[in-house]
Automatic annotation (TrEMBL):
Keywords: Signal. The keyword Signal applies. It comes from Bicosoecida sp. CB-2014. Residues 1-36 form the signal peptide. The keyword Signal applies. This is Uncharacterized protein.
Amino acid sequence: RRRVSQILSQASLPPATMRAAIVIAALLGVAAIASAQQDYTVTVTQQGNFTVPAGNWSFQSTDGQPWSGGSQVKCMVEGQALKQIKAGTVQYQFWQEYEEHFISQSSQPYFQCDNKGCDPTTPVSLFLSDPFSVPTNYQLKFDVTLPAGSADKPKSFHMVMWGSDQDHSPYDFLLELHYNFTSSA
């Protein structure tokens, strides 16, 4: 960025052109950073009790390296909860291209629970701005370990994730994360 600024400051350009050039240079820097991250696509299949606005998610490796089998990935989705959530679970399954069945699955509770119920003020994966107000903003955060998959199949995967609250139906949300990698741990 400093080099681009130095080059632009030495050019004799009109102020509006200079501002446009600086914005373009900054955007190119952001594009380079984004391309260094893992490529993935997200498809929101269902918005139930949670809104999932486009782009309100991130999936990043914990070590900053490209994804591979065994990578730890931090998952984050945010939006608005449209009903009071008293209990629930985020669940996920991993599928590999050309595999007949899912290859891995797991889940995490929304909140800490005991034999007396769940406490929305002690989040495990679901962080509510105001657990007793509707609507309220939420942030769903959890870590997953990516499976390596079968060695004889393409390294093309998707993770299906959904949330289910105390009423079980409809799902709070349902989305798919599509990704690829070429090496495995």
